[in-house]
Amino acid sequence: MSITIKNLTKSYGNVEVLKNFSEVFADGEFVTLLGPSGCGKTTMLRSIAGFEIPTSGEIWIDDRLVSGGKTFVPPEKRDIGMVFQSYAVWPHMNVTDNIAYPLKIQHVSKQEIQQRVGKILEVVHLSQYAQRMPNQLSGGQQQRIALARALVAHPKVLLLDEPLSNLDAKLRESMRFEIKEITQDLKISVVYVTHDQTEAMAMSDRIFLINQGVVQQSGTPDEIYNHPANQFVADFLGKVQFFKGIAENGTITLNDWHTALSYPEMAHTGKVEIAIRPENIQLIPSDEQGAIQGLVQRLYYLGDTTDLRIQVGDANVRVIADGFARNSTAPGKNVGLRVRDFMVFADDDSLQEHLKIRT
Hints:
Oligomer: single chain
Structural class: alpha+beta
Number of strands: 21
Largest sheet: 6 strands, mixed
Distance between the termini: 33 Å
Number of helices: 9
Strand order of the largest sheet: 7-8-9-3-10-11
Helix content: 10-25%
Order of helices and strands: EEEHEEEEHHHEHEHEEHHEEEEEEEEEEH
CATH class of the largest domain: Alpha Beta
CATH topology of the largest domain: Rossmann fold
CATH architecture of the largest domain: 3-Layer(aba) Sandwich
Radius of gyration: 25 Å
Shape: globular
Strand content: 35-45%
CATH superfamily of the largest domain: P-loop containing nucleotide triphosphate hydrolases
């Protein structure tokens, strides 16, 4: 089921938290609304759910207007499922009764309830815990109860509001893939809200990166990560450093690095800002032809990666290499660097304004 949003705005008093949002989320698509706290992403989700009434604009679910003008369809009649940050499971009900609750409200027959709950328990891998109480389960299992309860009524759209933020890091990682697989298998449309860029990258078909109530960029994870529309997008999604330079004659001379990078496309000229992700700088022997000379200042071994700070000219450059790099270098050693990729933005002295997050 598709979701069409037309010119949606939402204000609280004089504060406009969503500004003229228009988009179509396709049937079966996994869409993530990503951004810092207070950017408007949860307000958008709650507007789709029917928990917020937009100030202006329209929301359509398939060909049905659910919000706009004099029309407002309440949440329980929008054919949606919703999972919140807090698990919101009933502590006095066992797993089966928690999941069956929305079906009982709909007066579904006992036989069908039993069939549908049994099936969804298998989907979320909780069949063996059907009679347990929530306090006997882990946080991840309780979140699966909430997910099953949202799915058991066969909603056309699933809305998730930071559902993994209360879980520990390892469980959060495994749940990302479980949610993605479950929703793919059920062929259900998903709108997911998070401020965690790793979650967004791992799960999404498309990401909408929002700041100050405005979509800064939308696209696939690859498009947004490797081709950011502005400095805010580059900075929010992943790790990055910015350096000033001058673009001319097919090269960019980096002021602090005292070196030049090849830039044959010359999409920008004159003063530029270079954004370099630390994983896009390669360690090479210092005597290799074309190597940029650097001095290792600090090294942090993180197991799968080695996180380095390297002095290049007057710049302190972050480099993320693989874990084995710790065996070939150390603080105080000279290294060579090769920049494999970088992004270029016009430098109009507005970098700090671009990177500002207002809440």
